[in-house]
Design a protein that fits this description.
This is Galactosyl transferase GMA12/MNN10 family-domain-containing protein. The protein has helices at about 10-30, 65-80, 95-110, 145, 170-180, 185, 200-210, 230-235, 260-275, 290-315, 320-340, 345-360; strands at about 50-55, 85, 120-125, 125-130, 150-155, 160-170, 225-230, 250-255. It is of the alpha/beta class. It folds into two domains: about 45-190 and about 200-285, Alpha-Beta Complex (Spore Coat Polysaccharide Biosynthesis Protein SpsA, Chain A); about 290-360.
Length: about 350
């Protein structure tokens, strides 16, 4: 969505809000008497996973954005997802998103585990839901690997794109958002205003920088280990000036980088979705998601398990000569998992490389 760009220093209230969140975060991370956080038990039914949607729209009325949010609302009602919409400016421009997400995360974490939602799906207001037959659960990691995955997003030519993303309700996510919010404080030498363009917001740049930082992170590990990139067109297909890059059955359309042409494209899509919704809707079982998402997470599971076995075997090797190839293969596979999991061919190749090294060890 379009918001006014302002510098971080222009509103001292932001620092106050940030400090408030830091205090709230202490509750999440430091209580000595509280039991350690545990994920909710595996539900018996596929669609019983608890997912909510969130977005924001405030300021000057914009009927097209309202209609776009309504498309997400219809999808949420169809599948029983709670939907949160920020209607007031609570910070400076783009910083509203991470502050709002952090507040939602803290609210959920303050509830008993059985009452929390498990994932929040963020959608920018310039996205339109075009296939309401697709459940959000399809894109989430299976329970046996979800403890290690906390951010499910996509990337484009600018890197991380936060217009559409899934965030795990977990202390990892709160800490990640807090660090992104605090980036201008602990990295004052980095001018985020001059690091972005019209297609790349300041908060997105801050999140990307935190994600790429190899130091710190949750439990002393880098945040990259908790992120996973889906093939972008699955959940974040773009409308270009000349055409839509997705196909019938895709869940939504996003309108970045179109400038004033955005309004014509959005209006045309909204007319289609509202007047003839079935023209783009397709039963979930007939979409590429039905088998594609299962295959994706199966590959991720296999890669993680292969790394675990390799690291166990690595510790038992007696020679440096034998360890070096395996260490390199593990490192390369981890790099793909963290940065390029959406590249199927590359992931398969790196996985095979590691298996080949293990066969020789």
């Amino acid at each position: 969505m379009i918001v006014m760009r302002q510098t971080y220093q222009r509103r001292p209230l932001f620092v106050i809000l940030l400090c408030s969140f830091l205090i709230c975060t202490l509750w999440v991370f430091t209580g000595q008497e509280r039991p350690a956080w545990r994920p909710v038990a595996d539900p018996e039914r596929y669609h019983s996973r608890r997912v909510a949607k969130a977005t924001m729209l405030y300021g000057k009325p914009n009927p097209l954005y309202e209609r776009a949010i309504d498309s997400h609302g219809r999808h949420a009602r169809r599948w029983g997802y709670p939907m949160h919409v920020l209607r007031q400016d609570i910070s400076v421009g783009f910083w509203n998103k991470p502050i709002y997400l952090a507040s939602l995360m803290i609210q959920e974490m303050a509830k008993p585990p059985a009452e929390r939602v498990e994932w929040l799906m963020w959608v920018d207001a310039d996205t339109i839901l075009i296939n309401a037959a697709v459940p959000l659960e399809a894109f989430l990691p299976p329970y046996d690997i979800s403890e290690d995955v906390h951010l499910v997003a996509t990337r484009d030519h600018n890197g991380l794109n936060t217009g559409i993303m899934f965030l795990h309700v977990h202390p990892w996510t709160i800490k990640f958002l807090i660090e992104a919010l605090g980036h201008p404080l602990y990295k004052p030498d980095v001018d985020l205003d001059h690091s972005v363009d019209l297609d790349h917001s300041i908060d997105q740049e801050a999140m990307a920088r935190v994600l790429s930082n190899s130091n710190g992170g949750f439990n002393g590990t880098s945040y990259a280990e908790g992120a996973m990139f889906l093939p972008r067109t699955w959940i974040n297909a773009y409308e270009w000036r000349h055409a839509y890059e997705g196909t019938r059955g895709n869940i939504l359309v996003h309108f970045p980088g179109l400038g004033d042409q955005r309004w014509v494209h959005m209006s045309n899509w909204l007319d289609v979705v509202e007047l003839s919704p079935h023209s783009w809707e397709m039963p979930f079982e007939e979409t590429e998601y039905y088998n594609g998402t299962v295959a994706f997470w199966d590959r991720i599971r296999e890669a993680k398990e292969t790394i675990r076995i390799a690291e166990h075997r690595f510790n038992r090797l007696s020679t440096v000569k034998g360890k070096a190839p395996m260490e390199a293969a593990v490192r390369e596979l981890k790099k793909v998992l963290q940065q390029e999991a959406d590249d199927t061919e590359l992931l398969i190749q790196r996985l095979q490389d590691l298996k080949s090294v293990m066969d020789l060890s």
